[in-house]
Amino acid sequence: MDVLLDNLDLYGPGFLNTIKLFALAAIGSLVLGTILAMLRVSPVPVLRAAGAAYVTLFRNTPLTLLFFFFVFAYPFLDIIDLSYFLAAVVALTLYTAAFVCEVVRSGINTVPVGQAEAARAIGLTFGQNLGSIILPQAIRSVMPPMMSTMIALLKNTTIAAGFSVVEAGAIYGYLSERGYSVMTGLLWVALGFVILVTPLTLLQRSLEKRWSVAR
Amino acid sequence: MNSVLFDLPGPKARMRHRLFAVLGVLAIAGLLGYIVYKFADAGQFDATMWTWIQYETVQIGLLDALVNTLRAFAVASVLALLFGAVFAAARLSDHAFIRVPATVIVEFFRAVPLVVMIFFFHYGISLGAPFYSVVLGLTLYNGSVLAEVFRAGIHALPKGQSEAAYAIGMRKTQTMRLVLLPQALRAMLPAIVSQLVVLLKDTALGFLVTYEELLRYARYLGGLLEFEQPLVPVTIVVGALYIVMCLALTGVAKWLESRNRRSKKAVPMEDTPEQADLEAVRPV
Question: Which of A39, A202, B136, B165 is the most buried (most CB within 10 A)?
């Protein structure tokens, strides 16, 4: 207990940074992932191929390698200087976007084709079709895997600790400097993550139960 | 192609699609071209930057690093499969005193980030060589995920299977071993292999605790002044290695799945075809 209470000045900002990293990367990856999913379901073959290539490339690359690229190799590009924090956000966003894209795409594909055909037959425009027929149905099946992806993203933020970003995963280094037990310190970090992840898991389960109504 | 969102295009729409295709190609080519140009501008694509690949010591070092990555993967995946099988069995137990602790342990290891676990084993309780921390972390995390996969696989079987087994007088162990497991394993293979792809990717976390794997060697190579610090070429080569390894594993998964589909022994699972597509969504 002492390890936690004596070092609240580490744990507070550490977890705050983790949440900041998570929030920024979540928004970024949701936006980018949806755009990619739009490419992947578009009627233009070239755009579909581009989306598929992105997904294959980023889904099969370790996230650590992306961090590695943005921290060590990106500075050679000399475009915009990224701080370590921003580099972490970009790496997390690019990586998670590939997974978000697949979730959204498969969600859209779960809607039976007949639904959209019926909508077109009664004269709904593309926007109406998407907004009031397809998305409401797709979101139901998308929510549970999307929540899993977001939980994974929250846990993945800890990789940033290895690349000079001060967040929850990096607390151990400061603890050993101050002479506290690293073991107990890391157990508190683990508990912190359990506390952060549990509500998300519970939300996921309840959404799954409430929304798994037969169409 | 008949998609949910779009009708078959008419002549006007086809023209529009062609326009989009041209614009898309221009945009993608522009973006890629800009990045390549910037790297080339920074001298990262100069011929001298690639000389490192010709040295025998470097090739052997790269191979050693690759072997280290694969070693961690092999050991951890075997252990994770064992861990998953044991804990799935425990979670399916009829006795609450086995089921409840197993559930708590599995949920705990699924909720804690792998990095924190590896740090705990390496810096917290100093397991010695980083190899052990990496393997133990990978085992516990992926093992608990696999336990969930196994359990879900058993639960997805039609209820009639176990009911019929009980009706002809089989015990629970017999039902599990002779009726449920053979069918469930068949259906779960793709999910298991995708989790193994995750495990393979996560061996790169060994980088953070100085395990001598591919990424660590890439860092070492990229910092060598003799080769003018060829960070970008090294990253590209190592990234390609990872992608090839993961795609090979995914290929195995796809092959197993297609073989599975042709097999007459397969039992239809109790989910709708719509859900089947969602299962194609890979774990992160």
Answer: A39
Chain A hits for B274, CB-CB cut-off 8 Å, are: 110, 112, 141
Please check whether residue A213 lies inside any domain of the structure: no
**Spatial distance between the Cα atoms of B203 and B66, rounded to a whole number of angstroms:** 11
> Which residue segments constitute the domains of chain B, with CATH numbers given?
61-278 (1.10.3720.10)
Distance CA A162, CA B115 (A): 9
In a domain, A202, yes or no: no
Residue A197 lies in a domain: no
Q: What angle do the packed helices B130-156 and B181-202 form, to 10 degrees?
A: 150
* Contacts with A, B 6-45, CB within 8 Å: 6-7, 9, 13, 17, 20-21, 24-25, 28, 35, 38-39, 41-42, 44
The CATH number for A60's domain is 1.10.3720.10
Q: What distance in Å separates the CA atoms of residue B17 and residue B9, rounded to the nearest whole number?
A: 9
Tell me how far apart the alpha carbons of residues A101 and A103 are, in angstroms, rounded to a whole number: 5
What is the number of CB-based contacts under 8 A between chain A and chain B?
194
CB B262 within 8 A of CB B221: no
Phi, psi of A20 (to 5 degrees): -60, -45
DSSP state of A71: I
> Can you tell me the distance from the alpha carbon of A138 to that of A107, in angstroms, rounded to the nearest whole number?
5
pLDDT tens digits, one per residue of A146-191 = 888 998 898 888 888 888 777 777 777 777 777 777 788 888 888 8
B residues 199-238 closer than 8 Å to A (CB): 201-205, 207-208, 215, 218-219, 222, 231-232, 235, 238
Give tens-digit pLDDT for A5-64: 777 777 888 888 889 999 999 999 999 999 999 888 888 888 889 999 999 999 989 999
As for how many domains chain A has, the answer is 1
Which residue range(s) make up the domain with A45?
Answer: 15-168
Least confident of A95-99, B64-68, B210-214: B210-214
Q: At what angle do helices B56-91 and B96-111 cross, to 10 degrees?
A: 150
Q: Where do the H-state alpha helices sit in B113-230?
A: 114-119, 130-156, 159-167, 172-174, 181-202, 214-222
> To the nearest 5 percent, what fractions of chain B are helix, strand and coil?
80, 0, 20
Instruction: Kindly indicate the confidence band of residue B276, based on its pLDDT and cuts at 50, 70 and 90.
Output: very low
Q: ipTM of the predicted structure?
A: 0.85
Question: Which residues, 6 or more positions from A127, have their beta carbon under 8 angstroms from its beta carbon?
Answer: none
On whether any CB of chain A is under 8 Å from the CB of B263, the answer is: no
